[in-house]
Design brief:
single chain; mainly alpha
Length: about 300
């Protein structure tokens, strides 16, 4: 006997609500996406059309001169290499410290669990300040080294709280009891069962650390004096300041040559947009690969704790 499927029709109010919600989502998407699209289009367009407001949906006066200027500078590639090293090192250090600590704090049998958690949470709101931190880093001999950029900022208590909440809400106690009955120890349970089941939250923490390390600027400016250790963001700042000062000097030098002066200012504007694209492109490429885990990990990790 065939059973007919019964479909419940949406009421008129439900249909209106769905339409309005769809329109709001589309508008929100456009508001978030269009600035990125505009920067990408402006980086390959003639600046005179950008400044006049004639650039909206597609490149006008297509040119790649700005990218040629950016990518021809070897400092950009040195910065890329350093940022990749800092990102990979920071991710490894952050995961090695965050995941085990989050798991340990999720275990109810951990002695003084509440007190230990309180000590870590205290550091989120009360810190020694920049000067004591700098003196500590200097006394440890970490200034002008890659380790200072890898270590600072890779461990965050917020990430630990999210990981702890994930383990508390996603790993049933019955699973651990069954593993212990089969002779599985705590360390083996963590390594072979808990960690493989924590892929969503690991992806979330990885993305958080990646964004933090790729945008590293303040710590590098404070603790690094060796130019060969500069991350990408610090090199881009230096290039922008250099080019701006050159543009100011060129204004006086080329005052009699209006055509050359106009071309120089156009080139400076194209390069600024090119800098933004060059600095943001790796994160935009990496995000789709972890996006499927991102929403699941954040939502589960925020349910309780």
């Amino acid at each position: 006997m065939m059973v007919k499927s019964i479909r419940i029709r949406d009421s008129f109010a439900d249909r209106i609500f769905n339409v309005v919600l769809t329109i709001i989502c589309i508008c929100t998407l456009l508001i978030a996406f269009y600035p990125l699209y505009f920067v990408l289009v402006a980086s390959v367009s003639d600046p005179q059309y950008v400044n006049s407001g004639k650039l909206l949906l597609y490149p006008v006066g297509f040119t790649t001169e700005g990218y040629h200027q950016v990518l021809a500078d070897e400092r950009v590639w040195i910065g890329y290499g350093n940022s990749i090293i800092y990102a990979i090192g920071g991710i490894l250090y952050g995961l090695v410290t965050t995941i085990p600590l989050g798991y340990a704090l999720s275990r109810k049998e951990l002695p003084f669990r509440g007190f230990i958690t309180g000590l870590f949470v205290f550091t989120m709101y009360f810190q020694g300040g920049m000067v004591p931190l700098y003196l500590t880093v200097k006394d440890l001999g970490l200034t002008n080294s890659r380790l200072v950029i890898i270590i600072l900022g890779s461990f965050a208590m917020y990430n630990v709280i999210v990981v702890r909440s994930y383990f508390s809400s996603s790993l049933p106690e019955e699973l651990r009891e069954a593993a212990l009955i089969d002779g599985c120890g705590d360390l083996r349970y963590f390594a072979q069962i808990a960690v493989p089941l924590a892929k969503p939250i690991i992806a979330v923490v990885t993305l958080f650390i990646l964004v933090s390390k790729w945008n590293e600027f303040t710590n590098a400016m404070i603790y690094l004096n060796k130019r060969q250790l500069y991350p990408l963001q610090l090199y881009l700042r230096e290039l922008l300041l250099t080019f701006s000062s050159m543009a100011g000097s060129a204004t006086g030098a080329m005052a009699s040559d209006a055509e050359a002066l106009e071309r120089y200012h156009k080139l400076s504007q194209i390069i600024r947009y090119g800098f933004i694209v060059v600095a943001s492109l790796p994160l935009l490429i990496a995000y789709p690969f972890v996006q499927k885990y991102f929403e699941q990990g954040v939502m589960i990790g925020s349910l309780k704790g």
